[in-house]
Design brief:
Helix content: 25-40%
Number of helices: 11
CATH class: Alpha Beta
Number of domains: 1
CATH architecture: Alpha-Beta Barrel
Structural class: alpha/beta
Strand order of the largest sheet: 1-2-3-4-7-8-9-13
Strand content: 15-25%
CATH superfamily: Luciferase-like domain
Order of helices and strands: EHEHEHEHEEEHEHEHHHEEEHEHEE
């Protein structure tokens, strides 16, 4: 790992936010690519994942956005907020699906229901049934983010005129969020230049899919420079699957078992259903997997998940010490948020919480408010934007 100067991050302390994943888009299996009715995406099963992660002490949970299979993340989060004690919900939202003023009001309402335990994962993929250029999609997303943040901060009338939206609102009181420091934090992932520019200008946490450590470091340094050009600092997050067992042999065997019934053509079909299957980030992961002999693109980073899944395609695999040490290497780089998952999601959620989560220095939770609080610096989900 490069021993050069530290990458500037928004949260310099090594305390991290550890999130799990609820399979709203049908992404839950015992054997990858083999449908299992007991693990299908529904309110009861996905709700069990959220409640379990909350009980086990995870700080956040990603609620993904899909189309062909799945549930609406925003509606689902509204139902979950009163059922959880302290966990945040990271709600994935495709920009443009909802008229921005109405989206701002819906998010403000959810923020109040959750008493501030809300974050947003900005998605700029094509809307179902459409195909647009990167430039159009990210320009539209930029306007929507500006509208949301403008409405949440406005006192009195709010006006906006852009390329995609022209809005005149005589009163924005209904859009005031619970979080009065600029609204929910915005997480964003995307490796293309247009995607990185959007995050550098507007968002708070830049999410990355698994790649080799040298590539992760290079991406982080580039993003830190882009943010600095706009007078900002950002935090960095890492989205990965995880397979942890008491021994390395057991963990590797669990990884092999996961794909033991996978038909490769069926796996590709599952990948191709996703609207991000041809994105630059997915192709970079595919290229690394193609270069590996045993699906391990570097020690303890196994790319077998990408044989039947778009998006995040690799898992950290090993015994508790190996998984912990791998995470520490990312923390050394400046990663301050992890979004993890495993198959099946409930079982792996419990295993990671048993073997690794208590050893990580995580941001503390205020049980009375259910919000992340400073200790001793303002952590990820309450820091004012810079």
């Amino acid at each position: 790992m490069n021993a050069s100067s530290p990458i500037p991050v928004r949260s310099p302390e090594r305390k991290v936010e550890v999130a799990w994943f609820s399979a709203l888009c049908g992404d839950d299996y015992e054997y990858l690519g083999v449908p299992d009715g007991s693990l299908r995406s529904n309110y009861e099963h996905c709700g069990d994942i959220v409640r379990t992660a909350d009980r086990l002490g995870y700080q956040n949970i990603l609620l993904p956005s899909g189309w062909i299979v799945g549930q609406d993340a925003l509606a689902f989060a509204s139902a979950m907020a009163p059922q959880t004690r302290s966990i945040n919900q990271l709600v994935a939202l495709r920009m443009g699906e909802v008229w921005p003023p109405m989206l701002g009001r819906a998010l403000a309402t959810l923020d109040h229901i959750a008493k501030g335990r809300l974050c947003i994962n900005i998605i700029s993929s094509d809307m179902p049934g459409t195909k647009e250029s990167n430039e159009v999609r990210y320009a539209r997303s930029s306007e929507i983010i500006r509208i949301l943040q403008g409405m949440w901060a406005a006192e009195g009338p709010y006006e906006f005129k852009g390329e995609f939206y022209e809005i005149s609102l005589p009163n924005t009181d209904a859009a005031k969020p619970y979080q009065q420091n600029g609204g929910p934090l915005m997480y964003f992932g995307g490796i293309s230049p247009a995607a990185q520019d959007l995050c550098a200008k507007h968002c708070d946490v830049f999410l990355m899919w698994p790649e080799t450590e040298d590539r992760i470091e290079a991406t982080m340094r580039g993003m830190a420079e882009k943010a600095a050009a706009h007078g900002r600092t950002i935090d960095f997050g890492f989205r990965s699957h995880v397979i942890v067992r008491e021994t390395e042999a057991e963990a590797r065997a669990a990884a092999d078992r996961l794909i033991s019934k996978l038909d490769r053509e069926k796996g590709q079909e599952i990948k191709d259903r996703s609207m991000d299957s041809k994105s630059l980030g997915v192709m970079r992961q595919d290229e690394l997997r193609a270069r590996s002999d045993d699906l391990y693109i570097e020690p303890h980073l196994w790319s077998g998940v990408g044989l039947a899944r778009s998006g995040c395609g690799s898992a950290i695999v090993g015994d508790p010490d190996q998984v912990y040490e791998k995470l520490q290497r990312y923390i050394d780089l400046g990663i301050r948020a992890f979004i993890l998952s495993g198959y099946p999601h409930l079982e792996e959620c419990d295993l990671f919480a048993k073997h690794v989560l208590p050893r990580l220095d995580t941001v503390k939770l205020n049980e009375a408010q259910g919000r992340l609080v400073p200790d001793p610096v303002t952590p990820l989900t309450t820091a004012p934007r810079k």
